[in-house]
Design goal:
The chain is mainly α and 126 residues long. Among the domains are: 32 residues; 50 residues. It contains three helices and no strands. Helix 2 packs across helix 3. The longest helix has 37 residues. Part of a complex composed of FtsB, FtsL and FtsQ. It is found in: Cell inner membrane. It comes from Moraxella catarrhalis (Branhamella catarrhalis). Belongs to the FtsB family. This is Cell division protein FtsB.
């Protein structure tokens, strides 16, 4: 009778150890739950990149279709990319650069002031 109980206890212990080892493999193993989450994140990122590329491709396909269908798209590209100006047109270029000079005229020029080509960068205090 004792031997049957001992066998049962040993079987339960072995089953518990196998169950614990399987859980460790599932949660922390190479192909376990943590790896599944990482693969799902990679898949989500790749799907996002694929969608961006599909959108870019659709824009390029529409551009190609426009270029094949009419001269207005070709003219637009020539104007924007190559600076096309037709005869009789006036070209005006506006600058977005900030104004770095004063519009007020200098009243008096001081001869003691030297021109400086560049101003050295200040040394940061540590």
């Amino acid at each position: 009778m004792v031997s049957n109980q001992l066998r049962l206890i040993i079987s339960i212990i072995i089953a518990a150890v196998v169950l614990v080892l399987m859980q460790i493999q599932y949660w922390y193993g190479d192909y376990g739950h943590a790896n599944l989450i990482a693969v799902k994140n990679q898949l989500h990122e790749q799907n996002r990149l694929n969608q961006e590329q599909i959108n870019k491709n659709n824009i390029l396909l529409a551009d190609v279709k426009d270029l094949k269908s009419g001269l207005s798209a070709i003219e637009e590209h020539a104007r924007l990319d190559l600076g096309l100006i037709k005869p009789g047109e006036t070209f005006i270029q506006l600058s977005n650069a900030p104004i770095t000079y004063s519009r007020q005229p200098l009243l008096e020029i001081d001869e003691s002031i030297e021109a400086v080509d560049s101003v050295p960068e200040p040394i940061p205090n540590h």
